[in-house]
Amino acid sequence: MSETTYELRGPGVQITYRQGELSVDGDASYLQDRQFTGDGLEESAIGIGRLVTAVLVPVNRSGSEITLTLLLPDAAPEDGVGAQATGVAVITNQGDESTVRQHYEVRPLSGSVSS
Asked: What is the pTM of this model?
């Protein structure tokens, strides 16, 4: 059985994901031509699918950090057969200089999942 591959795109972002590997390209400088593997990814199965998180901009002097979290559906496509899929990309800007410490930018994703 081959690995499941997600190829999804949304407003200003395109992702390719298979377990342990994430490729991102997008409109913001921190999204352009990025590759994440192994320890650069935090992956977990949850009741509504799979969460995949990567740090786009590590904590800087101002104490802020930017992360990308994907919510992807559970999928088990047959080998060589693709299926339509949707997901969500959440870009989180987290800092400690205001009352509200996280600000979210949510981008819907659609595309395909295959194996």
From this structure: 0.90
